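Need EamA domain-containing protein's 3D structure for a figure. Predict it.
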Amino acid sequence: MPQSRSAAAAPFALFIAVTLWGSSFVATKIGLRQLEPLSIVWLRQLVATLAILPFWLPAWLRHRHAATVRRSDTGLLLLLAFFQPCLYFVCESYALQLTTASQAGVVSAMMPLMVAVVAGAMLGEQVTRRMWGGFALSVTGVVWLTLASAPEESAPSPMLGNMLELAAMACGVGYTIACRKLGSTFSPVIITGVQILAGFLFFLPGAFMLPAGFTSMAAQALTTPGSDAAISLFAVGYLGLFVTLGAFALYNFGVSALSASKASAWINLVPVVSIVLGHLVLGETFSPYQAGGALLVLGGLYLCQRTPAPPRHGIMQVQKPQRAGALEKE
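Structure prediction for EamA domain-containing protein:
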């Protein structure tokens, strides 16, 4: 796809990606009715692996045949997969057991700012005042959104939990920067496939935590589509096919087409989507205060993605030196 088309399609791809990530909270809650958390993580990696393998293998072989894969690129690709999903999922899973979802949401709002700072230092990306203003507005919206939410459960160790959530965000930063650097070397299909395969192997212990009657549970799901088992397994299948595979592929494409700073700004839309879908699907509360926070997040995203208009007299300013040079030559 030409670079101009990729840049135009990237915001749409990122919007779909964060919408899918936001829906993962609802799907995970449904899956937890029948399965353990680690089993859900492994099953979604299994579903995603089976789905992407027919596309990933030919893409990897074509890449190996067409270009020499440098050892440094392979190492960075493996580091990317270690950051996300492996280490990220571990840190965030334990963080949510120790702190509230609201506090974790506030901490997660730091990721776009962290990406902007690191991308400026490592990739030389320029962060404009307009983007800093959009980041600030978006973070304010996330803080407002999470503080307006009613606490879901007690936090036995919020300080440690928030530190683990911050570590998860640091992993997200490392993943985004690595993905941006590898975007010109590997296709989004190759990057996504490596992530999924690494996650499948890393979370393999989850296969041993499946319930004893999992086979009969799967059979019941096939014969009785409306049963609790069927709904939970459908949610896990959705997580594997659309969230793990679809969202990562779309986000990897978006990061490869836009700057890391602009792409990461979309992450702040995740809590907005999760709260709206939680209200629509699970009947959770969605107050006017939360709606106000959601509008701030959307406003911040608009500022981050908006491209400043070129100066009205930019063409004349460029032409004047050319005319002067031409007169001197004459």
